[in-house]
Amino acid sequence: MAATEDGFVVAGHTHEEGSSEQDAIAVRVDGEGTEQWRRTFNANPDTTDTMRAVSVDPEGRYVFAGWTSRFQDAWIARLTPDQSIDWAKRYGPGDHNRLHGIIPASEGGYVAVGETDDTDDNTVGWAVKLDDEATQVFSQQFKKRSDTATNPYDDYNVFYDVAETRNGFVAVGANAFDPATNDRRGWALEININGGKLWDKRIVSDTYTVLHSVTAGNLEYFAAGETATNGNGDGARGFATNLGIDGVTKWQNSYGSGSSEFSAFHLADEDGMVCVGSAADSAGGTTAGWSVKVGGAEVDAATPSPTPSPTPSPTASDDSTPTFTPTPTDEPGGTDATGGETATAAPTPTATQSGGSGTETPGGDGGSGATTTGGGGGGGGLSPAVVGVGAVIVALGSAGVLYNRFLGDDEDAAGSDGGAGGAPPDDTGGDDGSDGGGSGGDTAGGVETSEPDTEGTEQVQAAQTVVEGSGDDAGEAAGGDAAPDSVAETESDAGDGSESADAGDTDGESESADASDDESSE
């Protein structure tokens, strides 16, 4: 989904019931969710097509990225504001090509990221830049260096999202030594405007860690995804992290319990992350929509009202029966008309939630039987079965949960608590350096230098050298690299043989053919 001036555009795919053929679809809605138009389109008749990313460029045009079953190619299309197709082209340096993220570049054109395969039939991270007319400017492939001599590079590498930085572009995703294993390690990599690598880092929390979304802040980057015991979703939690301009981890936390994940986030004011995803009691269970805000400005809470204290009843000093005198009042209901005790008006609702025999206080220590979300970046919050569906749980602190909102109805509240109980934060200072995949941490006090494949500017060169002090290895312990040269880069330039052949095939796709396909599809 991408925001427009007065609404949103949503991308995906659609197909007729019982049909194996599938078309890409774009839907435009206003700020209230009312549909304004929809458009289906395909790469070719009788193909299975999907779009997995959409962005809006400065001219108001919609650019989509995904893939098609035609030659297993990646596919990018651009629609004008009136839904006509500017161009739609296929790209494929390998035999299996997919694009998961795309953004417009500030200097013009677009950058998309995803995955392809190399000559060894391994999955490699892929970044491609196009000019305004969809001609490739560069096409680069990346794989992470492993620490095994018999297999020096990870066999599985993929990018899911990309954001623009002051030096180029940062992509996030995951890699694994062997794609058949049930583990993943989060991965972030920055390239310059020519596609040359500046740095890359592993970001690891649990055995299975994947980064789905990234946004550039002020000389820093934020990313979100999921971390779990394994790829089946057991013990999965939403995961968020903050990286410095050189990729060093500033903080990382996990949120929720059961089986929870963040699929995307928006960077709000003061660097607060509004993360969205899904949550369930257990892997494979019924899921509910889930949103958590971490970091940034504190959420305004209602001013606590004092707990009303009833007026004590008089106690008789002898065997006589006490007599009660009604107290006149201008407010209706101010006096118990039947006698017994003076009634007090109902208190103003406060942000304090009652749970069990205790009381949850925002940012407090909690009480007996209550779950407290700490201000230091703790777990995901309470079950809606405890506080009620749609409850907002408030806490304070940098990178701590500021609110935890569950979306669902009363009937399935018990089966979709999202973040019940909460998980402790992943303390970057207390990690043992294990990344679940055999990689070690960076050496404290060392100097890491990553040389780009193409010559960059003075600013780019300055960003390539990272000097780490003694305080840095706590932050890197959870997500450090095996060695200073921990990334190998395999280039697939637009000018090589495979690309030129593909470009020729791609260019053979005429715009008129696409347009006719689209109209017939509609």
What are the main properties of this structure?
globular, four-stranded antiparallel β-sheet, disordered C terminus, 522 residues, Methylamine Dehydrogenase, Chain H, six-stranded antiparallel β-sheet
Distance between the termini: 21 Å
Structural class label: mainly beta
Strand content: 35-45%
What is the averaged pLDDT score?
71
* Rounded radius of gyration (Å): 28 Å
CATH architecture of the domain at 43-294: 7 Propeller
According to CATH, the fold-level topology of the domain at 43-294 is Methylamine Dehydrogenase, Chain H
- The CATH superfamily of the domain at 43-294 appears as Integrin alpha, N-terminal
CATH classification class of the domain at 43-294: Mainly Beta
Dominant shape? globular
Helix content: under 10%
Number of strands: 30
List low-pLDDT spans: 314-398, 408-522
> Major sheet, described briefly?
6 strands, antiparallel
| Number of helical segments with 4 or more residues | 5
Biased composition (Gly residues): 355-377, 435-444
Region (Disordered): 298-377, 408-522
Protein name: PGF-CTERM sorting domain-containing protein
Biased composition (Acidic residues): 502-522
